[in-house]
DNA sequence: GAACCGAATGAGCAACCCTCATTATTTCTG
DNA sequence: CAGAAATAATGAGGGTTGCTCATTCGGTTC
């Protein structure tokens, strides 16, 4: 019996898998609007009505696809980040991974925006939550270790980090120049450094002022 | 005759204005999908078929609304930027203006994304072109004047600038904390500074020069 | 094998964008 | 100014598409 119920559950899971998989393909190929429920059903080898047994409506099916995509991304990012030690390197690794994946899979990334923009739901992207948390973790650890300034505005940095990357990818795809990737990463890290480790330059200048002042005192003494 | 044709043109222009205006309101209130062409026609005091005499389809009408919004933004930004002198201040002014306007009118801003994301047109946002050019102009002028490093990667900076702001606004709206606005602006400018005025090396060299000069003075004195 | 129950089906409905034959309005002409 | 010609506007109807629901199917139990 346990075996039989399990088989039954597995059957349902398989069907759901087939549906999501077919939906993913269709949405990817044709976008949210152009992908028809009838096509998805056909591709999944299922009657149209069956879709509605597994997902409330088209949008819910769409959301399932997007959610799964973000889960994949999160897993990949976790692995990459775990491979290096210092928070600074982790940040660089996360940036590189994210940029690459967004570039490779822009279409799907785009779709995740359609989901939240398109229909006026203000419900935030819970999909992204886990992904963003990786970033937060790196920053927090960096602050704890003393690598980063304790006043670092984590939330704002997050926006800087991901916002810049999304726009950079969009620019690259538009202009067709994907070779700017290293330059973009370098700039992003330089910018975050500017916020994470501030006030290095002023201190240096200050240092020079103090030294010159000291010399001036010597001069004044000698000239006396 | 000239008068009559003018009157005719004006009449057509008026009707178009009424349509776009009604569409703007509807799209703003209900979003791209939920706003029905029938409703827009009714709101504009026009038959549904008439809409299609002025705009090819729903998307074209939508595009007209978005374009007009960006024209407004561009005009406002130009004015604000012209009011201050140094490129650095202009950048700050542009940032503040942009952030404020995106915050105030997020819904419409959102819609401009639906336009380009939603239907799989890779055609870039010509709407934004003029707006972005304001930013480019500031940077170029700054480089010419010597305020900014000549190696400044303008295109990437653009992505940093606008990407960060969009994400920041989204965060603020999500968390309901709009009081972070000054902090967000400060961080953004600090980050751009980090990229625009790198030259840590030159400063260091300068520092050494100054120290050596000071020492030389001491030496000269002692040798006297 | 009969009764039961959840899963699956697909014809049909309602909503919506868009077209086009028809009607109204303006412009032109003699 | 009358009537013809051209242009603008209309809205009923066509074609899609997302979704529902009465019906059928497949398997489990007694």
Automatic annotation (TrEMBL), chains A, B:
Residues 36-55 bind DNA. Keywords: DNA-binding, Transcription, Transcription regulation. InterPro entries: Homeodomain-like_sf (IPR009057), HTH-type_TetR-like_transc_reg (IPR050109), HTH_TetR (IPR001647), Tet_transcr_reg_TetR-rel_C_sf (IPR036271), Tscrpt_reg_YsiA_C (IPR013570). It holds the Pfam family TetR_N. PROSITE patterns: HTH_TETR_2 (PS50977). Residues 13-73 form the HTH tetR-type domain. This is TetR/AcrR family transcriptional regulator. It comes from Parvularcula lutaonensis.
């Amino acid at each position: 019996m346990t075996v039989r119920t399990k088989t039954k559950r597995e059957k349902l899971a398989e069907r759901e898998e087939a549906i999501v998989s077919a939906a993913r393909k269709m949405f990817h190929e044709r976008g949210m609007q152009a992908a028809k429920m009838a096509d998805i059903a056909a591709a999944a080898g299922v009657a149209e009505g069956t879709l509605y047994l597994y997902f409330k409506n088209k949008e819910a099916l769409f959301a399932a696809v997007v959610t799964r995509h973000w889960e994949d991304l999160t897993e990949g990012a976790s692995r990459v980040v775990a491979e290096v030690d210092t928070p600074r390197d982790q940040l660089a690794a996360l940036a590189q991974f994210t940029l690459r994946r967004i570039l490779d899979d822009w279409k799907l990334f785009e779709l995740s925006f359609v989901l939240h923009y398109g229909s006026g739901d203000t419900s935030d992207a819970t999909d992204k939550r886990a992904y963003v948390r990786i970033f937060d973790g790196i920053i927090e650890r960096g602050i704890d270790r003393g690598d980063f300034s304790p006043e670092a505005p984590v939330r704002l940095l997050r926006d800087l980090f991901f916002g810049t990357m999304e726009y950079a990818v969009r620019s690259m795809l538009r202009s067709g120049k994907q070779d700017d990737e290293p330059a973009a990463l370098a700039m992003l890290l330089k910018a975050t450094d500017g916020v994470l480790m501030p006030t290095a330059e002023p201190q240096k200048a200050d240092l020079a002022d103090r030294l010159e002042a000291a010399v001036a005192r010597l001069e004044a003494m000698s000239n006396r």
